[in-house]
Amino acid sequence: MGRTITIDPITRLEGHGRIEIFLDDAGGVSDCYFQIPELRGFERFVVGRPIEEVPRIVTRICGVCPASHHLAGSKAVDGCFGGVIAPAAVKLREAYYCAHFLHSHIAHFYALAAPDFICGPDAAPAERNILGVVARVGLEIGRQVIEARATAQEIQAVLGGRKRNVCWCTPGGVSKGLSEEERAGLKPMAASLMEFARFSVRLFKDAVLSQSRWVEAILRGPYTLAIGHMGLVDEVGAVAFYDGTVRVVDCEGSELARFAPLDYARILAEHVEPWTYLKFPYLRARGWRGFVEGPDSPIYGAGPLARLNVAEAMATPEAEAARQELFAVAGGRPSGAMLAHHWARLVEMLYAAERLVMLVADPELSSPEFRVLPERITGEGVGIVEAMRGTLIHHYTCDDQGICTGANLIVGTTHNNAPIQMVTKKVAIALIRPGVTPDAALLDRIEMAFRAFDPCYSCATHSLPGAMPLVARLHRGGRVVAELRRDG
Amino acid sequence: MPTGALLLGLGNPILGDDAIGLRLAALVAERLAASGGGGGLDGLEVIDDCSAGGLELLEPLAGRTRVVLVDAIVTGCAPPGTLHRFTAAALPRTRRLAGPHDADLATALALGRRLGLDLPADEAIAIFAVEIEPACEFGATLSPDLERAAPALAEEIVGEVRAALAATSPPPAGR
Fold it and tell me: What is the ipTM of this complex?
């Protein structure tokens, strides 16, 4: 009988996410499953509540990207009230979201991605964290990381009125505008984030792209998939975080769909597998055909690289130059190199900063007309934003009194469920060979496959205390014959 | 920058028993306020709605003399409602997966100190963690067992917080 390897990141409430690798008798990989928990009961929780309260509740779904849920929910509520919104509020919300992207992307790159790329996969486990990164790039850079995150959070506080638990958006706009004085104060803050984003892109080039082994691993290793890509684009086809139409292209770049938020259910369908609660979205028109690659695949991915893959450009000059450089190295667009999500995240960091600089220079941001009072209830709305880890869809319905009657959410990690399965299995097959005893370093390289997607499987909103982060169990004949544990 | 002692409740208010840390922080604050005098809230700030973790905790912790964290935990090694008590010194040195989108608390504290932030010593960060069943269903109420246990758990924590407030000086930094 074959063996089973389980990679089980046991933390507190995130503890259900794990990889199970089934080995055949010869020691090769026969199958591989990535399982993450699904939170249940959200619809039941919000049905019966005033619909305008829902965007304030959804910020609690996830402590990792509360602003994404708040904005997607608010757009859905705007739809339930006829879709009117003050133009200045659109810009205010977008500025807020740029700051939120920066806050999140900075943490992801320096705390999660950089340990792989800057410390290297062969570094001692104790070094492969943000402390190891700081040891290599210097304390001053470490301070700048903390300062840049604090600046991004402060911008959100100035715009939204508080640093945490945002409750700013209201139907038709926002509850608080921006004074001229506040806007003036945001300018140097945005400029400092621009400098930090430039530095981060340079750091990636110097530390990663200068090493051919990394470029090879990113572009040509088993970490690649020939699947479709999905993301929001604006009216000229540039990457959009806050608003736009959803575009889907196949692995060769041909457009498969372009749709407005209300049409999402016509384009997307969800497949169910017996071994996981989490569904697998796919393109309805193509039908579910399993976890298959190729130009005919119904499977698509979302997130930073997917956003760049579906777009014709970045809307700001420096980010556009960085985008072109990425695809020049990657050999064209779209790219199926899943590790390039990390690079795309940096291009987006640059875009978010550049766009933020532009927005805070716009006098309309200080307009006193930051809310339009809705005059009618139309009863249905779909709000789509690009969350950090993929397209986020909130769909609400309400009755003629504005009481919520239904809610459906599709989050970024759900879109990536199938790609994560596929690339994890591909890497496991490539690395676990007959005669090779899986060790912690090898398992870490498998883990890199799904870390690129930054999958959000945090049930809870924090991670204290974080013990025993990774356990791999080898089973043979129904019993555990070995256990690999990494406590740090 | 804030100063003095901090009581920080951590958790998700709409994820069932994951909210136990928030509930206990509020109960402890009520009891301390009701007792008045030296055991009251003078010098203690209470945050009972914190849904943050990792690097984001550096800001509220910086400048404090003492910190009491109250949270939920799933060890699987004790019945639900068990109060685990330890300090930050006992936090294992974990890898980043411990907080899948951020640094874990131990790493965040180590980073903050290396960068020169004025953080309390590990021994001055008391952590109370209540064992819960894994919370995967949305709901704004605690399970009945935990609801019943909450007052007694709060009493236990009140003693520790009073001791922290009564302490004239925090332990050596030991950084």
Answer: 0.78
